[in-house]
Amino acid sequence: MKINKIHFCLLCFLCPMFFFGQIKVSEHIQPSAIAKQNDNALYFVDFWATWCKPCIHVSKYLESLQKQYSNNFYVLSLTKENPDLVKRFVLKHKTDLAIAIDYDGETFKNNSIRSLPHGVLYNADGEKLWEGHPADFKGHQIVGFLNRNKKQVSVNKMFKVQAYEKSVVVKDVGLKKDFEIIKLNAKENTGSLQVVKHLSYLDLKGSLQDILAYTMDSFKNQVNLSEELNKRYQMRFKFGSDAYSNKTETILKALRLKGKSTEVHGEALVFDIKTSTFWDTEQIDWGKDTQHFLIGDSEIQADNVTLNQITYQLANLLKTPIVLVNNDIDEHIHDWNVHYKYFDLMVSSLSDNYGIQVEKKMVNYPQYIITKKAPF
Fold first, then answer.
1. pTM of the predicted model as reported, rounded to 2 decimal places
2. Which residues make beta-bridge pairs with 180?
3. For residue 194, what are the β-bridge partners?
4. Contact yes or no for 346/357 (Cβ under 8 A)
5. 376 DSSP assignment
6. Residue 70 · residue 64 · CB < 8 Å
């Protein structure tokens, strides 16, 4: 019994030590311009993302709260997004709060963050004191927690920088041909489709069904092909080439396949675009040579993409075909910010921001049958 008590006491003594630096960050984007102390008793972690509009309003509230309680209280806005994207965002949306990148999304996972914005208050031992929507966290609560938590810890100990292993950057030497295709073996199964935009070419890696759905801007289940044909490939298309402009035809020709379009009847999302109010390309700017999409748990942001490209992403996120009506094939590029997690919010978002009326109903939609060409 004495041994158990000793073990229990030792555990209680050591636990606080395990909490120091428990919040790993891969990079500090900026320090707090408001907090006056390096050692603090309370640390508030604001979980956010650049695509989350409510997060922007919450940051203003937290900024005000940080100014009122600049001693012994420290607010850190934590995101798991690309650092370059966050830096560009901060240039447009100024804030004096501390901002950092969550290491490998670890703190998001440990706190089971499912919606944003979200806030967690810790004491110097890393114990969770409060959790909820940041707007519900009030000044009088800070006073109460400060009265009961006197121990302090430095910012650097609370938020430990964990660097990723350095990787060798391979110079983009371009493609020798307009189109290159490599068949992958089973060991190179990377799961879902990988899309990487290099300086001079587009790189696709995945199953043939996923790749064709991407080139056709369709829901993957609309592409019908046998298991024998659905091998995994890596395909590269040089920008500006005929192969890039006609990706689907290029793939079918290279693999000696043929495609046939038929119609099936089933449930789909109908996007009715009688009077569009699409955004221009000035709403989101991630700079040149960056990926076009940022897909979060509930919203999708896109920089300079067409209507067909955004419906492709939505169809595969929602696992439902999308049919466009009253659309004069808008091939222009636009910026997008669409909620997709909750259907009613998605409907109102698309209607209010882009003039797209959405309805779920039984309709005819295309299905693409892919088969081998007959031998000569």
1. 0.59
2. 236
3. 205
4. no
5. -
6. no
Q: Which two tokens stand for residue 270?
A: 């109908």
Query: SS3 helix, strand, coil % of the chain, rounded to 5?
Result: 30, 30, 35
Report how far residue 113's alpha carbon sits from residue 115's, in angstroms, rounded to the nearest whole number. 6
pLDDT digits (tens, 9 = 90+) for 93-143: 899 999 999 887 889 888 888 788 999 999 999 999 999 999 999 999 999
> Which tens digit of pLDDT belongs to each residue from 182-233?
999 866 555 678 888 888 899 999 999 999 999 999 999 999 999 999 999 9
Contact (CB, 8 A) for 271 and 322:
yes
At residue 28, what is the residue type?
Answer: H
State how far the Cα of 38 lies from the Cα of 154, in Å rounded to an integer.
5
| Cα angle: 153, vertex 109, 15; to 5 degrees | 40
Rounded to whole angstroms, the Cα distance separating 308 from 331 reads 8
Using DSSP's 3-state secondary structure scheme, residue 337 falls into strand
Confirm if 297 and 115 have CB atoms less than 8 A apart. Answer: yes
Residue 205, beta-bridge partner list: 194, 234
- Pairwise CA distance, residues 335 & 331, whole Å: 13
Distance between alpha carbon 249 and the CA centroid of its chain, in Å?
A: 31
Q: Cα angle at 220 between 216 and 221, to 5 degrees?
A: 125
Angle between helices 307-318 and 208-216 (to 10 degrees): 140
Which residues fall within 8 angstroms of residue 149, CB to CB, at 6 or more apart? 41, 42, 123, 124, 129
What CA–CA distances, in Å, run from 231 to 166, 209, 210, 248, 261? 32, 8, 10, 16, 21
Residue 183 has phi, psi (to 5 degrees) of: -80, 130
CA distance 102 to 28: 9
Q: How far apart are CA 365 and CA 363, in angstroms?
A: 6
| Nearest alpha carbon to residue 311 among 209, 191, 206, 214 | 214
Is beta strand 357-372 parallel, antiparallel or unpaired with respect to 223-224?
parallel
